[in-house]
């Protein structure tokens, strides 16, 4: 008598092997049989006509605050994610001196656009050190497994105080103290260390995050702490400028410690071919014995612009600023007024930061984002607002305004900022096929007011496997492997990501024909009525974590089998040949 049998599904097992019809038996949270299962079970699920996969392993999220109050970790839980790795990009909430709580919140709010009031009300701060943070997480129930990394910004502030926050150079004593904290964090179960070296990441007061300008001595000193601990990924967001200098220390660190170094890679509109140089340098590093991997995204990093979003095309127009502070219902009534509409459209925007020109005048990169069965994240240049204005003779600002007014003021305009310079996904296809890349960068839990890319795992199936019409698609088996086996292995999670006997029983049962991502919507369900943009999905028939069914037909079952992951997880010898 098994605990659970999934019968007759098309199994894409995570190894990349051809999908096959198979039963899956589960006992005590572990897969025990795959193939033709002749026994019985306390519960059976008929998966005939459905796809069965491992649960998605999302290695780039920012649930560091939300994880302390939300047992679901939505939106990721709605998209078949069964494991999340947080603590990315050098920001997080441990270690944390009592007088630095507000500062850490402002850092996260500035970098990741998570409402500070929600973090202030939601986080209880029953820790100071990183091991204490881990212990706090370990006490809570949740629907999926969580893992974290030690963030550079928190460590630097903890050791160096204001000097660290202001990005002053670390002394030898500072580096030794930081290395000790990182080593303690890894020993407590962190999966790695993260840092940020990009000017895109600024705190709420506009200052670069701590560690942005850290020198080689600081980076190597901390990296050696990972080596001393014996495991851990060194993760970073970086402008990679100059690229050769960044790769020099990355190669040295990985070759010396034997540990992975991984960095975020997106196509830049300023240097649209730089990603090729980065992959060339990554290949060279690997040939020289370094374990370097680029984390890539499956679609553009794009803003979803609406009247309730953090920003929109009229945010810097003086006439809009006059009504910006009104509650949404009152503001919407003003926006419907023809006279106010005319004034806002006629205004010239004020200076609004480095991206302000694109945000307020980049009509050639703005597109209607509407739900017509599928959301179009790979739009054609001829579908842009600018192209529509040229065809119709209308003012592009009027067109954008009217798009935002759709659905009673809840219409959205899509502005792909990164990864879409040539208005197609051909480069993303090339990135995903490169052996030195791993699928990542969903930023689950972050950018609450303008982005919802936690839907990436579902998009991989709907767009890349099923619907893409403007270029090559990807095989189901490859897409499943990319976001299960490959992501899990990078972080040493060797017990999951493949459906095979002895492996952890994390699975999805999916109606691939009916799978779809729903339109974004703005909700106010964070603590302190904090705002966030969410996206749900239809088509997940069931999600299973540690052998327990956590979601059925998109609804939570109440099961809370999720655990805190402490350190790398065991390898299953019988699975190695399939890898």
UniProtKB/TrEMBL annotation:
Originating organism: Parvibaculum lavamentivorans (strain DS-1 / DSM 13023 / NCIMB 13966)
Keyword field contains Oxidoreductase: no
GO molecular function terms noted in the UniProt entry: hydrolase activity, acting on carbon-nitrogen (but not peptide) bonds, in cyclic amides
Region span, Disordered: 557-579
Location of the Amidohydrolase domain: 43-551
Keywords assigned by UniProt, alphabetized: Hydrolase
Protein name, entry field: Amidohydrolase 3
GO CC aspect terms: cytosol
Record flagged with keyword Chloroplast: no
Pfam family, one: Amidohydro_3
InterPro entries linked: Amidohydro_3, Metal-dep_hydrolase_composite, Metal_Hydrolase, Metallo-dep_Hydrolases_sf
Domain of life: Bacteria
């Amino acid at each position: 008598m098994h605990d659970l049998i999934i019968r007759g599904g098309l199994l894409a097992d995570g190894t990349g092997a051809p999908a096959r019809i198979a039963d899956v038996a589960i006992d005590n949270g572990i897969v025990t049989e795959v193939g033709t299962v002749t026994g019985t079970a306390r519960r059976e699920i008929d998966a005939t006509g459905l796809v069965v996969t491992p649960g998605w392993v999302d290695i780039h999220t920012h649930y560091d605050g939300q994880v302390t109050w939300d047992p679901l970790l939505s939106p990721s839980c709605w998209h078949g994610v069964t494991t999340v790795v947080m603590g990315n990009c050098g920001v997080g909430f441990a270690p944390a001196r009592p007088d630095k709580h507000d500062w850490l919140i402002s850092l996260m709010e500035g970098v990741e656009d998570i409402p500070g009031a929600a973090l202030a009300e939601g986080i209880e701060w029953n820790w100071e050190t990183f091991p204490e943070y881990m212990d706090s997480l370990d006490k809570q129930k949740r629907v999926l497994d969580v893992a974290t990394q030690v963030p550079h910004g928190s460590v630097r502030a903890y050791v160096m105080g204001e000097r660290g926050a202001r990005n002053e150079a670390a002394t030898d004593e500072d580096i030794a103290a930081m290395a000790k904290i990182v080593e303690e964090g890894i020993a407590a179960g962190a999966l790695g260390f993260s840092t940020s070296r990009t000017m895109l990441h600024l705190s709420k007061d506009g200052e670069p995050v701590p560690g942005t300008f850290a020198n080689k001595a600081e980076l190597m000193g901390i990296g050696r702490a990972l080596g001393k601990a014996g495991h851990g990924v060194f993760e970073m967001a970086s402008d990679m400028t100059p690229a050769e200098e960044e790769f020099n220390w990355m190669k040295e660190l990985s070759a010396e410690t034997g540990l992975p170094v991984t960095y975020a890679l997106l196509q830049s509109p300023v240097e649209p071919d730089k990603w090729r140089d980065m992959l060339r340098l990554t290949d060279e590093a690997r040939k020289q014995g370094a374990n370097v991997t680029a984390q890539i995204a499956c679609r553009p990093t794009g803003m979803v612009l609406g009247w309730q979003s953090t920003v929109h095309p009229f945010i810097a127009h003086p006439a809009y600023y006059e009504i910006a502070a009104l509650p949404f219902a009152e503001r919407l009534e003003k926006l419907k007024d023809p006279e106010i509409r005319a004034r806002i459209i006629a205004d010239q925007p004020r200076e609004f930061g480095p991206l302000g020109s694109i945000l307020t005048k980049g009509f050639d990169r703005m597109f209607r984002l509407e739900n017509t069965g599928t959301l179009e994240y790979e739009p054609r240049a001829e579908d842009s607002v600018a192209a529509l204005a040229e065809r119709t003779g209308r003012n592009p600002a009027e067109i954008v305004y009217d798009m935002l007014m759709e659905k009673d003021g809840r219409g959205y305009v899509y502005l792909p900022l990164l990864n879409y310079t040539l208005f197609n996904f051909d480069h993303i296809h090339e990135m995903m096929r490169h052996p030195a890349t791993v699928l990542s960068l969903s930023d689950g839990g972050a950018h609450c007011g303008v982005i919802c890319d936690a839907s990436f795992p579902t998009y991989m199936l709907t767009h890349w496997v099923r619907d893409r019409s403007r270029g090559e698609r990807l095989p189901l088996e490859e897409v499943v492997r990319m976001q299960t086996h490959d992501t899990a292995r990078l972080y040493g999670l060797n017990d999951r990501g493949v459906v095979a006997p002895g492996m952890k029983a994390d699975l999805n049962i999916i109606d691939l024909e009916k799978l779809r991502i729903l339109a974004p919507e703005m909700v106010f369900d964070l603590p302190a009525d904090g705002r966030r943009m969410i996206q749900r999905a239809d088509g997940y028939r069931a999600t299973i974590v540690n052998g327990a069914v956590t979601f059925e037909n998109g609804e939570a079952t109440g099961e809370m089998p999720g655990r805190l992951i402490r350190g790398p997880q065991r390898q299953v010898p019988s699975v190695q040949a399939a890898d």
